[in-house]
Description:
The protein has helices at residues 20-33, 50-57, 83-89, 99-105, 109-121, 134-138, 142-153, 183-201, 221-226, 242-254, and strands at residues 9-13, 40-44, 63-66, 93-96, 125-130, 166-169, 209-213, 232-235. The model has no long low-confidence stretch (mean pLDDT 96). By secondary structure, the chain is an alpha/beta fold. Strands 1-2-3-4-5-6-7-8 form an 8-stranded parallel beta barrel, surrounded by 5 helices. Helix 1 (20-33) packs parallel to helix 2, helix 1 packs parallel to helix 10 (242-254) and helix 7 (142-153) runs parallel beside helix 8 (183-201). It is 41% helix and 15% strand. The protein is built from 10 helices and 8 strands. The chain binds phosphoenolpyruvate (PEP).
Amino acid sequence: MTVQRSRPLIVGNWKMNLDEPAARTLVGALLTILPFDRVDAAVAPSFPCLRAVLDAVTGSPLAVAAQNMHSEAKGAFTGEVAPPVLFNMGVRFVIIGHSERRALFGENDAMVSRKVVAARRHGLAPIVCVGENEAQRDAGQTCDVVVGQVRAALADGALESPGDLVVAYEPVWAIGTGRTPDPAEVTGAHAAIREALTERFGTPGIEVRILYGGSVTPANVPVLLQAPEVDGALVGGASLDPGSFALIAAAAAAC
Ligand code: PEP
């Protein structure tokens, strides 16, 4: 897989859905219908399904992402998963700081920052999720919130270059709700994130892919991905249906 902004990146976050047979079936379908000549694509199964999905995608352009990981390489962290284990299995990306982890599992900016550094150290491409909640949106704080989260996630000086970092703008109020921001809101948030990335990394910050996520469907993806600085999508619900995910990928390729 190439990492470059000229190709959109579409990532399917399966969350805590699908058992192993269902994961295998979905991947089998995706391998035949995703437009790999025009998009980079990855799927993020739950941990127990990683082995089956990695085996199924062997030799194909479909990459595999983890939905989370710990920041330490090993140790007494019951129930956690270590970055080098994921890397050695063949996992390529890891989603970090998803709003569900922040809201439901107490993940904070400091933990996100440690995980980003750990992902890079162990060869995984971090997909860092940022986004405002509804109250912050209503208060006109979207750009301040996302810029603050990006700065905090990338605060560690050990991170000298962006490498294959990906940022996903996911308004919390849009995730799983069927509601989406209007194009001006997407444009504003992505521009603010881009500015934070170039402020942090200089010119290489221009190469970081910024994905939009939150209730993406085949119907709304052309509008959402048309905004400047949108380099692909992080897709939850619609990624569980191969036809919908393929339509989203095809629309992204056409944007
Ligand atoms: C997500 O949880 O990352 C997500 C984008 O979910 P959905 O597409 O279902 O809103």
